[in-house]
Amino acid sequence: MRALWSRVRALVSGRRLDHQLDEEVRAHLDALTDDYVRRGMTTEQARLAARRDFGGVTQMQDAYRERRGIPALETFAQDLRYALRALGRYRGFTAVAVLSLALGIGATTAVFSVMNAVVLRPLAAMDAGRLVVLSAFRNNQRFVLFNPEFEEIRVRQRSLSGMFAVSERPFLRVELPGAPASYVAASLVSGTYFEVLGITPAAGRLLGSGDDDVSGTDAPPCPAVISDGLWNQRFSRRAEALGSRLRLRDRDCVIVGVTPPGFRGHQAGSVPDVWMPLRPLTERRMLEHQTQAFFAGVMGRLNPGVTREQAQAELTAIYRQIQALEPPLPATFEAPPQPEELSLHVSDGAAGLGGLRRQFGQPLTMALAAVVLVLLIAAINVANLLLARGAARLPELATRAALGASRGRLARQLITEGSAIAVAGGVLGIVFAVTATPLIASAMTFQSGTSALDVSLDGRVLLASVAATMIAAIVVGVIPGMRLSGLHSSPSRAIGQRTMHAAGSQRVMRTLLLVQFALSLLLVTAAGLLLRTSIGLSGIELGFDSGRVVQLEVADESPGSNSVNVAESEATREQRAAIYRIADERVNAIPGVESASLSWYGLFSSNDLWTPLIDPLRPADRREARVNFVSTRYFDTVGMRLVRGRTFTHADGYRAPKVAVVNETLARARFGSRDPIGAQLTPDYPSRDDEPLTIVGVIHDARYNNLREAETGPMMWMPLPQAPYRIGSVDLRVSSGAEAEVARQAASVLGSVNPYFMVRRTTSLADQVQRTAARERLLFNVSAVFGTFALALAAIGLYGTLTYKVARRQREIGVRLALGAQRESVVALFIREALALAAVATLVGVPLALAAGSWLRAFLFGVEPQDPVTLIGACVVLAITVLLASCVPAMRASRVDSVIALRSE
Amino acid sequence: MDEVPYGALDLMVLKTLDGMGPLHGYGIARRIEQIAEGSLALNQGTIYPALLRLDQKGWIKSDWGMSENNRRARFYSITRAGKKQLALEADLWSRTVAMMSRLLEDPS
Lengths: 905, 108
Fold this sequence. Notes:
A: 22 strands; B: three-stranded antiparallel sheet
């Protein structure tokens, strides 16, 4: 122990101890010399005699040092110092190597940390590993679970210790005393929510099963639990927050508790500010209706000893029994579900509900695969450059070998150099990642408030970047290390012959280049396929004009129920129609607005409502169509073209005869050869408003919510004054450049018409359309950026290797030229070699690219996964890159002066 | 002349320091040579690794001081643990020697 400590101490103060030993030895020798002088020798003789008596000073010092320190560590420190010196000498090379590895490692870390936040990071819940997500499926299609089904399953199942349902209210209007109304993100949860997640309150109490009770008619103020963030922001963590009243939408609530600071809800990408009980806040009739109330998600906790498979078997069985007993669902386009088509999937719920995960999980996995490929390419590239440089360093290495360095020692030296580059790249890479991660996260933000996505570095992310660094270190360090250390078998030859043939090393370099180009071909092909997808998606005829249209997602938060199930008085509706008319006129009057309209929901706003439409002439035909309620100038504003009849006017008011406009697809599907104008359809709303509507116009088909729809679906529009619903969207076509100003003015105009009109989000119709292809764009950006990067790296690698080769073969070229070879043939010599490499890389890369294509299938549009044009294009890009990278070294070779080349040896 | 048997040098150094008090490296080497009376081929340098070894084991300690000819020198002295070790090894050594003599003198 003592010895070890002394060794460690010695490691730190090695130089000082060396100095002391020197002094001691010098004193010893002096004393010895003095003795001999005293015995009558001359000083010179005495000094020699003293040396002889003492023995080898250097050997002794080595033995002493070895005894004193920890040799392996010291050698490492020495290697490291040497490596840093060597790298410092070649600053340009080092910078390129470190930078390319940093990009590879940084990209890997960044993509992984987003993936970590979206897919992997477990909820801040007790024993999250036993949480499960329950999702209903019908014929492998995601389906919803309605409240009566949920309740029935909850009571009957035995696999789970608890189950809860969630309904999201991302925009809930809140009024706190002494502050203007604003929005909070709320989750309506069933009473068992906190119990199943295993959360304990930071203050007060959380919701419990008792809060599910809906029996009392004279409901007390609804209990609300607030987040630590809201507590801090609005109440400065004061205890008085508990018991405070707040008005949430149209309910009086009282704050009963605060969640602990680390709790971020039940889903990556959305952190609720408020939790409220689901059942008391939902209309009782809706809860009991077979197909009215459903949830954003259902989760549960497995009982001890129960596996997910067992739970799934039990829950699916119960789900099918319930379905078999229920009266059939209303007919839709498709046949009603058969019980055996239904299943209740039980999946891992450790990371919570997976809205974002479903959307981006797979693209992120692909992006991760792409960046790992890039990392490999970057590492191989650096390894290759090290090999080339290492070959140039053969004389140096051979000299060291001749002076007694062991093979292992030399290999260790090279590995240390490689690792030093990798570690520097890793550190810089993490810095890159920290800056790049929010950018990737923001590429996915829109759909849900993903600013709440927690992409901070955690242990798992750091582990991933350490792993990435290690991959880089292994590739960069070990390959050249193994290759070169075997080369010094004949030191004298290596020293003498600067042009010694490092044949083995050549083969490795060629193989590495081949791998680089093959992998690049894969990435370039993927980028090409996704580019064609983007072009395909943007080439789709929209059927409307998305340019210069500002879209405001708005909400009419006026008191009173927003549900169609609650009978509103005629007066209420008529009054609402009048207010909407005023709002419509005012927004149309804003300077810079060419045309504006109000509607129930916005085009491409990811809202979508389908309702059965009954043809009075054929009552059995209840096929569904998308429906929307729009103000008079809607079709002008979004730029949809009227084909026949008329659109709406102010005459189509609340008390006027009910009318509708349909798209061509609906007209064709429902009326065939009959004239749709004047025909009637009755929307089957859940409760009322079932008067027949008369069709007055036909609109040209368009895309409404999804670019990738195989064909346009049926759609029907009705006049806004005749709507039982409130507005959700205001669209404004503006003169160019006025977008921001108009959006700002529109918000204040709406607020002045009715303080309960609130703007949730401002966007543009073009952006909304773009957003539906967010995953494709994310993948395209990743593969385009990294495909280019990979190809550039491979080109640098090829350039470096060829340059080295030209230098090495200078003498041979000189001889050829002296013997009368044409300069063109020398150029051809190198170009031919490069093209041969490209050809082999293509042979290897094409199957890889084809495989990547089929992996991408789900994200492609308008292009086949094995599209030959894209593939050939990628090969051409590869060939051109190879040519460009090789022509400079080849030209240099042709300019070799034979006289100088021959004399140089 | 013979090489110093392995382990013997440590014992010699300990014995020397025990008998003579604090000494510098040169002094220890000279003393061992005197005792050996030319029957040992001691490279004087080899005592330094031995001194380090003994120091690491805690049997000797060292301090910087002034030598007879007024130079800075490192003086080594035996510690209590060193004395204990010396007694132990001396005993072991004499028993080994006694055993070896008996064995070698035995005519059979």
